[in-house]
Amino acid sequence: MEAEIRNGNRVRVLIAILGLDQHETGALAVSAMLRDAGVEVIYLGRFASPESVAAAAVEESADVVGISCHSWEYIHYLDDLLRALERGGERIPLMIGGSVISPSDKARLLEKGVSAVFGAGASSDDIVATVRKLAEARDS
Amino acid sequence: MPTDASAGKPYYRPEDISGNDYATDLNDPGAYPYTRGRRTQPRHDANAWILQELSGEGSPAHSNRQFRDLIARGAAGLDVIGDAPSVGCLDPDHPFARAAVGTQGVSICRLQDFLELYDGIPLDRITLSHSLPSWFTIAGLYLLARNHEVAPGALRGSVIQTPLYAEDYCYAVHMPVELRLRLTLDSIEFCTREMPRFHSFVEDTYFVSDGGPGAVDEMALGFVEIRKVVRELMKRGLDIDSFGPRIAILVNCRMGFFEEIAKIRASRRIFARMMREEFGAKDSRSWSANITAHTAGSALTAQQPVNNVVRGAVQAVALALAGVQAMEISTFDEAYRTPSREAHLLALRTQQIIGLETDCTKVADPLGGSYYVESLTNMMERDIADRVHEIEAIGDAVDLSNRGYFRRLLEQAMITRAAEIQNGSVAKVGVNVCQIPEEEDTMLREVVETKIEPSLDHIERIREFKRTRDHERVRNTLTELRSRAADHKASLMEPVITALQADATLGEVSGAMRMAYGMQYDPLSGTPAPF
Question: How much is the pTM?
């Protein structure tokens, strides 16, 4: 899919779950949906920390980082994660998704600097389009 | 919607079940092969089944108040779930635990926690079910009983055993499958001697199927695990009738109403025949599976959460008609949190309305003889048995676990289930059909979105506790446990009990055993062993 190719390489997204949250369905489902759309997914999986996510994102040259959450642990890690994703005045775009995120949570997260937030019922078209947009914005 | 055994006929006729022989395939309720239930006489009262709800939040003392509240409102059992650190065999002071202590269950890591958790709870009257590490729970309850001068042999209740699938699906304890299986076998064997009334082996097919496998794979995975554990216990020389009566199956109940009823009926028949004909159990109590059930949390939606009240009621009716021994309804706030007080009350009242106001419980197995239900029961039995055979033909369950077979199966099932909702092939009211604008979706919002804060003060209490205990005693018992764990013939229950008695904690005891199996003491953050 041409739209997912940038600089001759496929868009790369790192997917992880923070802390001790063990619910994985969302992370796996989004990974599968992105792969089907031609996006390269690096699946870091469960038990990630802000440091391990940032290290993997740099090592894997991820264009976007996606955090899946089914508990409120992400709130605790958010500031550290946003800081860790900053490199040389630039921040790797962060998207967060999960059914536990309410509309009011969403507004707060966007305010804090999260690039995209998906609550329950987000469509795959929406998620794929957002990934593409975030990756392209980094290029320009 | 049925997920596995899609029936495919507009209606059913006598010839669809003409192969059934009443005496051998069905028989009366309370008689082998127990297709129609365990009980001859139904109970049409508040004890038609054990009413319980998912319980545990914050510190043990805080959870104790929640338990008292539930019991005062009619709960006859408690289904105690640990928070994420406890379920993962980590202490509250672990670096990864800070954001999760007490938010999705009770924080429990030491003997003192068991004493506080069950303070004043009538242990002889209330059934205590546990979704916590089995060996830790059994050791804790054993010491609790002794502390209260109650004979451990009088304890009732149950604990889930998750040797094969835990690491792959939601219950990772950061231990190799060989150690997980050994702890399962040791704890069940210990209970045959010390806690014979306690259901030490609850096969939890709920956790392994919620959000993933459908009804057939749910039960097939469950039977693969039961069969592995039973065979291993028999290899140790245990009489099957010493533990057979204490096997229970905790099943899921989704929205496929008749399919779930048929699944339960078929599972009772499979279990009975397996125990008697294949494993040679002679005690009739070993033949009849004790079925307990949770309504599917994954069937519930974040959108229009009030709709979940209806889903829980429909699923609970299915369970009442199937004839289960205990039931728990996943509450309307499930998509967001562990149950709020309001959600608990509504779930208990739902069970009470079905049990007391309807005639669902007036006769045993009211659907018995229905062309459709009997046909579906036969179909489920065949499909589950075929799947068990297929998996066992591939290899030994421990090898399959190590080769990632179960992980791949569960991963694929999660992806498939999520895709069915995304692409609309399975209808989900409020999600892919019958949606309403976000600004109109306001009913019960205040309740479902109230967050539970991590119990940071409990972390401090545990830190202080660790600073002030007898360090040498802790070190000695953990060193002894580690060396016993390295000897694969030794039983682990006695050294675990000794360590807990000496104020060692869940995380430390687990770490000592991990090290004996060549793992890091703390595989998540690399903290070195404190002994």
Answer: 0.96
